Amino acid sequence: MNLGAILFEKTRQAPSPSKDFHQLLVTENQVILRTWRISIRKDQRYIPPSQRKVPIEEFDDDSLLQTDINRIFGEDTLRLVHSIVCKDWLARLPQNVLIHLLSFLDLVDIARLGSVCRSLRKVCSSDELWEKIFLSHCDTINDETRSLAKEVGWRKVFFTNKLQLQVQMRRRKERNSAEMKRKITPAEEQIPLTFVTQSNGNYDHY
């Protein structure tokens, strides 16, 4: 298969303790990861370089190759490769900048953008983005809403109408109250109660 023009190339040594050397190539047609084994062991001195390659259109589904690129070259490089594969240079922006820009889009546009590739789908469904969107539609956020968002996520909280949101927060409060009651220690439950009554000038204890 013709590799096509090289769109991106990066080389580096693997993270310690490995001494292996790696080359990452992104061409018009393929993503290629080459590895040269470096070892002081005699039986590994003449191991030929290995190569893993995947067609551009299949890279988004190759989680193993993505994991190796992230481990060797870092998350920023993986995001860059995703942006090249998606042919969407928007994904090259720093994530905090991208989230800020996406927060101004219509909800339909966010959904469409999230269907472009896995990298953008991850950003479009992130809690950071949906917290910004929620804040843009609400003047204030109380502590109960924030606690609920930690449990179910800001996206779900955003799409929950006010009545359903109140019901969920009430149920959460009741659940927390029940859990607190269950945490009462047996010693606390068995504390004897003492009643004092006065009879003919004398105090009796029960």
Automatic annotation (TrEMBL):
GO terms for biological process: SCF-dependent proteasomal ubiquitin-dependent protein catabolic process. Pfam families: F-box-like (PF12937). Residues 87-133 form the F-box domain. SUPFAM superfamilies: F-box domain. InterPro entries: F-box-like_dom_sf, F-box_dom, SCF_F-box/WD-repeat. One of its GO terms (cellular component) is SCF ubiquitin ligase complex. This is F-box domain-containing protein. It comes from Pocillopora damicornis. The lineage of its organism: Eukaryota, Metazoa, Cnidaria, Anthozoa, Hexacorallia.
